[in-house]
Amino acid sequence: MKDLGQLKYFLGIELARSKQGISLSQHKYVLDLLSETGMLACKPVETPIQMNHQLGILPDQIPTDMGRYQRLVGKLIYLTHTRPDITYAVSVVSQFIHAPSEEHMNAVYRILRYLKGAPGKGLLYVKNDVSNIEGYTDADWAGDQTTRRSTSGYLTFVEGNLITWRSRKQKVVARSSAEAEFRGMAQGICELLWIKSVLKDLEIKYTNPIKLYCDNKAAIQIAHNPVQHDRTKHVEADRHFIKEKLGQRIICFPFVRSASQLADVLTKTVSNKDFDSIIDKLGMIDIYALT
Amino acid sequence: MELPPGIKQSFEHEGRVCKLKRALYGLKQSPRAWFGRFTLAMKTTGYQQSNADHTLFVKHKGGKVTTLIVYVDDMILTGDDPEEIRTL
Asked: Which of A144, A263, A269, A288 is the most exposed place for a label (fewest CB within 10 A)?
């Protein structure tokens, strides 16, 4: 075994220390990807995915090179390890790897053009006074054009620093936005509980209930008052799970206005302005950018 | 250790067994065997395997903590106990 000294490079992820904090980025990986695809000289765009894209699988779509598409998407998936900003866009394009069309390929190229704008963007971990675990969940409703399934996403923060995030299309069709949100909440809780258990092994304990921010009042209401109800009885398992964690005071659900909902970038397309402000709040910076 | 499929029947018929002295490179089971051995070695040095993530090993000593995380054959060792990191 070999001691390689201070951690600088691990599995394609670059790590840098500064007075500000510790940053993680995949700068080299992005540049390699751009040069491989011949996109080094492309014109950058502001966001990784077009506003209100209607991507889906259409019967009359023009097929594209499937192997190439799959390889590109695979590489982008690896990139999401330090790039929550492209997580949603990548989760969208990866839904078509079995039948990619020209249009889907263009969406992939758009992600590459976005990366070109800030190849060194990564996560910054700073020391601060915050001492808690927090999460944000959000869901869109029936966003998938073909199957009408919803997408939910979560972000988790430990002491104010972004730790894990995910954007995922749900397995079943939700009949209301509250229901989609509710399923997303259950997923977010699972992740937060896992983080709590990792921290417990490190003997770091937080006694206050974990805050999981949610922007859907109806879902919060159902969580607090899980009465048997025609419109909620089919989400029974999630309902009991959430109620149990609420009852043990492990978790609580503060309402967050849609404007300050950070998890939006994991479930839907947002405007350029909102996108930049959310990405900033996630603690993403470009350490290679000249300031 | 299990016999590879195919060899199994012929050996069992004749009542013969294989005796391997250690897990061999290239066998299907070797990564797991390696990790099992690694886990054991870590445990005897006083590390505990985390239940939340089996590739995470933690050692607490005098209020300080050292952690080791494994990904295939890459590892990160970190913590606030430089002495412990040096000795491992």
From this structure: A288
Q: How many domains does chain B have?
A: 1
Q: Are A163 and A157 in contact (CB under 8 A)?
A: yes
This model of the complex carries an ipTM of 0.78
Q: Is B84 exposed, middle or buried (0-12, 13-18, 19+ CB in 10 A)?
A: buried
Residue A182, C-beta contacts closer than 8 angstroms, at least 6 positions apart? A219, A222, A223, A235, A238, A239, A242
Residue matched to tokens 């078509």: A96
Judge contact between A160 and A128, C-beta under 8 A: yes
Q: Of A46, A273, A267, A271, which Cα lies nearest the Cα of A169?
A: A267
Q: A84-93 vs A102-117: helix axis angle to the nearest 10?
A: 170
Question: Which of B76, B78, B81 to mutate to test binding with chain A, by most A CBs within 10 Å of its CB?
Answer: B76
Q: What is the DSSP letter of A209?
A: P
Q: Is residue B36 part of a domain?
A: yes
Q: Which CATH architecture has domain A129-256?
A: 2-Layer Sandwich (3.30)
pLDDT in tens, A206-259: 888 999 999 988 888 888 887 767 777 777 888 889 989 998 999 999 999 988
Any idea where the domains of chain A sit in the sequence?
A: 9-123, 129-256
- The partner residue sitting opposite B53, judged by closest CB among A7, A198, A203, is A198
Q: Which residue segment(s) compose the domain that B41 sits in?
A: 28-87
